[in-house]
Design brief:
The chain is mainly β. The protein has helices at residues 2-20, 72-77; strands spanning 48-55, 99-104, 118-122, 127-128, 131-135, 140-144, 150-154, 164-166, 173-175, 181-187, 195-201, 206-208, 214-220, 223-231, 235-243, 248-250, 253-254.
Length: 261
């Protein structure tokens, strides 16, 4: 009798376990995912901006001639003499290709990634543009307009490092970066002189200075911000500004001949 009772008890347990399993062909319902944080919307009636210029009146431009003779196709593809463009200055020491961005002050605000597709072209055996800004999740399209094979290699330390060869006439490569990182050096493993830099932010407030050294960071919500500045030759700087509703704040930067403020 004891054995029969024990067997019945085991049978009940097995029945309970069997009844608790989902029927064949069904998929268990996954746990509900956490709701995404709402995207921050800038009020256009109160938005301001930061604008300014970057100058290096005591610096001398880098005019190092690039020798492309190791690849005759590169030499013929480049229009005119090739020079290193890591430091290009305009009138009165205007610094081009400086990356300006909001470094602090937007914490806790979530912005939608830009739907605009950014582009780097390998043309004349150089990366164009040399300095580029992206939002996290924004599409980056890489082209090869040259008659030679190139290799684009972003040497990221926070994002994933990747390396991709691209021959003449190959389809564009599309990539995205998943984390903020300022800046990511980019090189071509085939042509050692090819260099570029990509700044990745989790917001849309960044710019690359033009030939006059100018930049604008528009549509900023009112607040106090740290404006960051990066240049591959001259280094980094920061400046704090406060933007009142509908106000345009000027933030000028200056480097001396040694790259310091």
């Amino acid at each position: 009798m004891k054995n029969i009772g024990f067997a019945s008890y085991i049978g009940v347990l097995l029945c309970m376990q069997g009844c608790s399993r989902p029927e064949k062909g069904t998929v268990p319902t996954p746990p509900a995912s956490k709701a995404s944080a709402p995207l921050f919307q800038v009020d256009p009636t109160t938005a301001g901006s930061v604008s300014g210029s970057v100058l290096a009146p005591g610096a001398a431009p880098i005019r190092t001639r690039i020798d492309m003779s190791e690849d005759p196709a590169c030499a013929s593809a480049h229009v005119g003499p090739a020079y290193d463009t890591q430091l290009t200055l305009g009138a009165q020491g205007a610094v081009t290709n400086a990356f300006v961005y909001i470094a602090h002050g937007l914490e806790g605000k979530l912005f939608a990634p830009s739907t605009e597709v950014a582009t780097i072209d390998q043309r004349g055996c150089s990366f164009q543009p040399r300095v580029l800004g992206l939002q996290v999740g924004q599409s980056l399209r890489i082209l090869n307009s040259d008659p030679v094979t190139h290799n684009i290699h972003p040497m990221a330390t926070i994002n994933r490092d990747w390396n991709h060869s691209q021959g003449p006439g190959d389809q564009p490569i599309t990539r995205r970066f998943s984390k903020p990182e300022v800046m990511i050096p980019v090189k071509c493993n085939i042509h050692s002189w090819m260099r570029a830099y990509v700044g990745v932010l989790d917001h849309p407030y960044f710019a690359v200075t033009d030939r006059k050294g100018h930049f604008v960071l528009p549509n900023l919500p009112p607040g106090t911000y740290t404006v960051g500045l990066w240049h591959e030759r001259l280094g980094r700087q920061e400046r704090q500004v406060t933007v009142a509703p509908r106000q345009t704040v000027t933030a000028n930067f200056s480097y001396n001949a040694k790259g310091k403020q």
